[in-house]
Structures are given as C-alpha cells and as structure tokens.
Amino acid sequence: MTTTIGRTVLLCHDLDASAAFWADGFGFGTLFRGETDGFPLLHVGPGRVDEPGLWLVPLPAGGAPLVRHGLPNLVLYVDDLDATLARLAAVGVEPFVGPDADAESGDRFAHVHDPDGHRIVVVQLGPVADPA
C-alpha cells in the first residue's frame, strides 16, 4: 500500500494576496481556480494538479480568526535557501527566524509568515550521509 499527501488546506483572508505570495515567493502556479456551490477555491503548487499542493480557502464571512500557536503550519524543502529568501524579500517578506543552520545535519532553514500569518519553515536539506 502506498500513501502520499495530496494537498494541505490553508485558510486565508484574501485569495488574490495569497496567490501572489505563493507565486512570487515560491514560484507556485495556479492549478485550479473556481467555485463549488458559490464557494471560491484556489489550488496552487509547484507541479501538476495531481501532485501535492495547497488549497487556499477563504475564511467564511464572520469566521473565527486564524489561530496561531507558534508552531509551523507548513514546512517546504527548497534547493537553494538563499535564492528563495531573495525571492521572498523582493515581495516584502523577511524571515523572523534565521536563516540558521543545524550543525549536525547541515540543514539550513528560515521561518517566514504568509499574508495571513501562517508560519512557514523553509528548509534547504544538508548532504545526506552515506550509510556505509
């Protein structure tokens, strides 16, 4: 049996602002944008519609505020942390943690917020040790 993650849902206040953040900051494309029974939906991601991505869903009118407990909502692996942070800086997003490195693994990481305050950890994985 194989299990994979398909999508993660993030609640947002403004679909257009969220779409711009994911496109400009991470290069995610719009995979689907439409409505179901009058409810707007936006699917963004780095690949195809059948690959892992994010559903950006607006908060209902009068909905509860987004809950923030200091834990990451999402961890993204990138090939080049510095290039990703430069893209994010170009759209006004600066890390509030890092960039830092894990001395043991060699992983480099930084924490940023999206327009709705979701905490995102951006990680460039270190070299994988040879088990032999």
Automatic annotation (TrEMBL):
Organism superkingdom: Bacteria
Coiled coil stretches, renumbered: none
Annotated VOC domain residues: 4-125
InterPro entries associated with the record: Glyas_Bleomycin-R_OHBP_Dase (IPR029068), Glyas_Fos-R_dOase_dom (IPR004360), VOC_core (IPR037523)
Pfam families listed in its UniProt record: Glyoxalase (PF00903)
Matches recorded under CDD domains: VOC
Protein name: VOC domain-containing protein
Source organism (scientific name): Cellulosimicrobium cellulans (Arthrobacter luteus)
Lineage: Bacteria, Bacillati, Actinomycetota, Actinomycetes, Micrococcales
